[in-house]
Design goal:
mainly alpha; 75% helix; 448 residues
Length: 448
Amino acid sequence: MNQTTEPSAGTGGTSQAGAAASASEAPGRRGPRVHRAWFVAAVTFVTIIGAAAFRSLPSLLIDPLHDDFGWSRGTIGLAVSVNLALYGLTAPFAAALMDRFGIRRVVATALIVIALGSGLTVWMNHAWQLLLYWGLLVGLGSGSMALAFAATVTNRWFTARRGLVTGILTAASASGQLVFLPLLAWIVDTYRWRPAAVTVALAALVVVPFVWLLLRDHPADVGLKPYGAAEFVEKPPPVPGAARRTMAVLVKAARTGPFWLLAGSFAICGASTNGLIQTHFVPAAHDHGMPIRAAAALLAVIGVFDIVGTVASGWLTDRFDARRLLAVYYALRGVSLLFLPILLAPNVHPPMIFFIVFYGLDWVATVPPTLALCREQYGDDSAIVFGWVLASHQVGAAVVAFLGGVVRDTFGSYDVIWYASGALCAAAALMALVIRRRDPVAAPALTA
């Protein structure tokens, strides 16, 4: 995918695209001031924002569903954990499907599935329906819209500034949380949870036309080189056997030590963010007397500072050792979690605001260095490998989303899970430090 080749006669549309690219860059003719890659990145950003509404809702549903149906928090947490697990396990196959069928088709289909699953929850009456609609359908759809989408766009359209672009696209999810979480919290608090589920479904559907009309699968489709590339890059042919290729990449990556270190540390990342804070912070704060709207507003503030932290992390990843960045991020996150139980209170106070800002800056700052290490270690298969690493992230999140509910049902508070997650973050910092460096130029594709 990132391998550069010269266009040659007889290669059909891609060689015509190469000729167009050469013509547009001929002496005396000025190319576009802004490379098309930045417009593709902008469409991707907006798409991820629109699809992020479903990521905002689970933490707001726990108490309303418990009140309306009498389901235990463990049962509701199980549905969220299925959603999170499928979100991760679908991601590596989504990356391969994008190679086979194109980004537009996969992403548009995923958005429709998300809308269907969220919309059907309005009519549910039994816990198994929550598992089916929110767990299975929304989980599968969101998995196809996971960070593998951002990784694929970045790998295809950018040679330079990949760390920065990864940070920006990763921050898009936080931006969506910022946009939708206060709105959804107000809807849940005022009209209960069903109108909020409908809002999520509509938000996913609204984005579909933007994806279909504006997104392009590869720079060669419009006769351009990737941003920062020295030579034109042919569009690779569709890759048959997407599932087989995905499993082959996993088998080969699993034979290497860096894969397990990246997967293990990223599982802890998911456990301490999506599984813990995103799922259980609102009900935990509510346990201490904080109104749901106030707790949701704090999560939205995390989204604000996550944008700053993730973009800054992308900038740092282009300049510093990704392993050391990860170690610092995980260590600081673990320390902050140890203080959270004494910070929860009925009112928002300065130490809590400091925690929110601090945690927001560190929320998914881990993504750009993790993706950079995948790219360094695994070359052209890095998007699929990162999909599997992301799967471990979501499995970790799923485990803690379920255990958090069980801990709350068993002990009457979330304190145990805060402390355990803080200790796990310390382990993740050590795992990042022991990853061996590798020359990215020498990193072969695992399927080569």
